[in-house]
Amino acid sequence: xxxxxxxxxxxxxxxxxxxxxxxxxxxxxxxxxxxxxxxxxxxxxxxxxxxxxxxxxxxxxxxxxxxxxxxxxxxxxxxxxxxxxxxxxxxxxxxxxxxxxxxxxxxxxxxxxxxxxxxxxxxxxxxxxxxxxxxxxxxxxxxxxxxxxxxxxxxxxxxxxxxxxxxxxxxxxxxxxxxxxxxxxxxxxxxxxxxxxxxxxxxxxxxxxxxxxxxxxxxxxxxxxxxxxxxxxxxxxxxxxxxxxxxxxxxxxxxxxxxxxxxxxxxxxxxxxxxxx
Length: 277
Hints:
3-stranded antiparallel beta sheet, 7 strands, 11% strand, globular
């Protein structure tokens, strides 16, 4: 139907926007001050964003510029729009270097623990071996697991020894879920009901949200500040300023969303929508 075809005016406006963005990026860098542009989660990028990236990458007038993009390769197949754009960029003679980022090695986990706990690597080795074995070296999982060890009293600071101590036998016996989201969800279930409910509502509001919107969704007054403060302290959220909050990681948002039982999600979204609109 003719109504479904974008008008020439909209298409021209889109082209002008892309052109101006390319010119803006081209005007910023120089040999003395190169520019690096980093974009995360490209697997969720829309067609226009991907086309702008292609235009910037292939514009011969843009120099001293490096583009870094991250995406989850398990969510990008040969039919994904990102795959086609990357191929189009390469077809125009632009070199693309693919770096596969996987879990960190056992030695890196040991170095992380050594620096975090201010202990010699040799004293951290037994702990890091167990931590790496249970988390698979997934960095978000490593950090969350360490936080849970401290919360459970299996990792503590000894005032007598003036250093961090750990109960290796108890840590070895710990059963943890096989993925980060499940582990985070189980951890969230141990939190007070008020915080759990706040996490559920916040998860439905998207990757970033306004504190006032959350207050409206929850229909609570006066308690949102303490809930948000607790979520920031737990490392779930980050304060972006001006009463705006963003999730520290999209998998943390997913873990909070998983607090809502699957059969109740539709009605929960309906509840949020009815309160907001």
